[in-house]
Amino acid sequence: MSHVPPPPRIPLLLRLALSLVERRLGRKLLANRILAWYPKALIGSSLMEGLIAHDDPEVPRRLLTLVRVATSFLVSCPFCIDMNARDFPGKGLREQEILGLQGLVPLESIDSIDARERAALHYVQCMCATPLAFPEDVIRDMHAYFSPRAIVIIASTCAQVNFWARLIQSLGVPPAGFSTECAVLNLDRYVTRK
């Protein structure tokens, strides 16, 4: 159960928009419903989600999925892990890669993660750390593999997941059940409410 319930009445246009998104995903989105208490937060968050890259010629879908899943694990957000890692084999990710994104297996030992993807994942680790710190070798590797535009796409994708993770966790939103059959995700390990 969340810390904050959804409002008893959601304005009609927001209700229609929520209905479309939930129908597409096949799940009720409790976080979005809770944000209806302050419609500007719901609209702004939804707009950001809609404008963030999900596939790009410079940063393909697989790499963006790796960034989203890695960020979800790094910020310990069960909802985000559940959402972003759902059907990971269908997204071209292997179980060993999921273990690497959880930090249970070194990324360097996973042959299916290439040097370009590793550079992005090391950058994501820096973005999720507190305090923020970006070693020269991480920045050098990013510039070796990515254009400035691609770096912005990777950074904004990581920041967007981080935004949702902080918001969702602060509202106490549990996983939506996208990945309940997948033990490798270890969702119970990432529970933030103590």
CATH superfamily membership of the largest domain, which one?
AhpD-like
Q: Architecture of the largest domain in CATH?
A: Up-down Bundle
Helix content percent band? 55-70%
Order of helices and strands: HHHHHHHHH
Q: Quote the distance from N terminus to C terminus.
A: 13 Å
Count of spatially separate domains: 2
Mean pLDDT: 92
Number of helices: 9
Query: How large a portion of the residues is in β-strands, by DSSP E?
Result: under 5%
CATH class placement of the largest domain: Mainly Alpha
The outline comes out as globular
Low-confidence stretches: none
- Structural class by SSE content: mainly alpha
The biggest beta sheet is recorded as: none
Instruction: Examine the coordinates and then state which fold CATH places here, giving the name of the CATH topology of the largest domain.
Output: AhpD-like
Cα Rg = 17 Å
Number of strands: 0
Mind explaining what this structure looks like?
The protein has 194 residues and is mostly helical. The chain is 56% helix and 0% strand. It folds into two domains: 12-51, no CATH class; 61-190, AhpD-like, CATH 1.20.1290.10. It has helices at residues 12-25, 30-35, 39-51, 61-74, 78-84, 95-101, 115-128, 136-145, 148-170. Helix 4 (61-74) runs parallel beside helix 7 (115-128) and helix 7 (115-128) crosses helix 8 (136-145). It is globular, with a radius of gyration of 17 Å.
Short structural description:
The chain is mainly α.
What is the topology?
Elements: H1 12-25, H2 30-35, H3 39-51, H4 61-74, H5 78-84, H6 95-101, H7 115-128, H8 136-145, H9 148-170
